[in-house]
Specification:
363 residues, alpha+beta, 6-stranded antiparallel sheet, 60% helix, elongated
Length: 363
């Protein structure tokens, strides 16, 4: 690697992390101002616990979220500074093509992409789980927690299905429970209960005031009882099916969860698929955003860095807008989640190629 490559790479990475160190404290200060009164309500909550369980994972999450923005802004500012100091002209005068000039930038983008992939797939989901548990315990009101579900159907396998009128995850208790087994299209077994209670230690459900029915070819057998225990292939966590839960699962667990849910007959899992695919598409955007930012700012312009920064920030907000739209559209039942998760990258890669070819031809 040449001295020039090392110089650009070092300044590129330094600018990215410096930008992150500016953005993250701002997010922390805003969050502290909003939540300090809620922290003070709990006498048993220590300062070390707030830092360890909440703000450490808060920084990991928002640092990873801000990484594309920091990459874009830092790359524009650093490259604009090179252009304003006529360093880019000197590099071009040394017969170094624009394509060759991009090499240290893409080495830096590769480092950031690999870092972001590891964070997205494994580190951040674990942190989200701890942070969300902290929020549920100390910050969110009971009304704000999704801890109560109504009219829940779940297909456990090809021949078994459960239904619950309502269930509270706070006290692990539900009402109007039924479990049905089928042979082809006919009911073979059914048990209903007025109350059902989950025992987490034993991994069993306690059914109270139940009625059990066996259906035979020539007769039915019906039994009533006070209490009975059942072991079923689901837990109360499976009742809270929402796209937000996917953020708390590492990618291997998320894949297992999707496969298990598909076997259970849950129809629309696109929100989970979008989350899974975006964990790869967002880190790859480091290459696209780097190419756009260098192509925009590698020439000295009237107005200096401010013009380049304004163009870049505007384009970055467009990227964020397309990304949010892709999440919403990709979660729809009839959507293609893979295509929608990659759509922002597809659109902006076309923009990046156009800007690259224009800058290359002008050089």
């Amino acid at each position: 690697m040449r001295i020039l490559d090392k110089y650009i790479l070092f300044r590129y990475l330094k600018s990215v992390f410096f930008t992150l160190f500016i953005l993250i404290p701002i997010a922390v200060v805003i969050d502290v101002s909003e939540k300090v009164d809620k922290f003070l309500r709990h006498d048993d909550l220590t300062f070390l616990q707030i830092i360890k369980e909440y703000y450490l994972n808060f920084i990991l999450y928002y640092g990873n979220t801000f990484l594309p923005l920091a990459t874009f802004i830092a790359c524009i500012m650093f490259t604009s500074k090179l252009a304003n100091n006529t360093e880019v002209i000197a590099i071009s005068s040394a017969n170094i093509s624009f394509t060759r000039f991009l090499r240290p930038y893409f080495i830096g983008a590769t480092i950031l992409a690999v870092l972001a992939l590891g964070m997205n797939h494994f580190v951040v989901p674990n942190g989200n789980e701890v942070r969300n548990e902290f929020e549920a315990t100390y910050i969110l009101s009971k009304k704000g927690n999704r801890s109560f579900v109504k009219n829940f159907n779940l297909q456990l396998n090809d021949s078994a299905k459960i239904f619950m009128k309502n269930f509270s995850v706070l006290n692990n208790k539900g009402y109007n429970f039924s479990y049905t087994e089928f042979e082809d299209t006919k009911i073979a077994y059914r048990i209903v209960a007025e109350n059902v209670t989950w025992n987490e230690e034993k991994g069993t459900f306690k059914l109270s005031k139940f009625r059990e029915r066996f259906v035979y070819a020539d007769r039915d057998s019906i039994t009533n009882g006070i209490d009975t225990l059942m072991t079923l292939d689901f837990t109360p966590d499976d009742l809270l099916i929402s796209g937000s839960k996917s953020m708390d699962l590492t990618s291997d667990k998320l894949i297992d969860f999707i496969e298990k849910s598909e076997r259970r007959g849950i129809k629309n899992l696109n929100a989970y698929y979008v989350e899974l695919y975006q964990r790869t598409s967002l880190p790859i955007s480091a290459y696209i955003l780097t190419l756009i930012s260098v192509s925009l700012s590698s020439r000295k312009k009237r107005g200096g860095t401010g013009v380049n920064l304004a163009l870049g920030v505007g384009m970055m907000f467009m990227y964020v807008f397309f990304m949010k739209v892709a999440v919403v559209l990709g979660s729809a039942p009839d959507a293609n989640p893979f295509f929608m998760a990659w759509l922002p990258n597809i659109i902006f890669s076309l923009i990046a190629v156009y800007l690259y070819l224009r800058e290359k031809n002008q050089g």
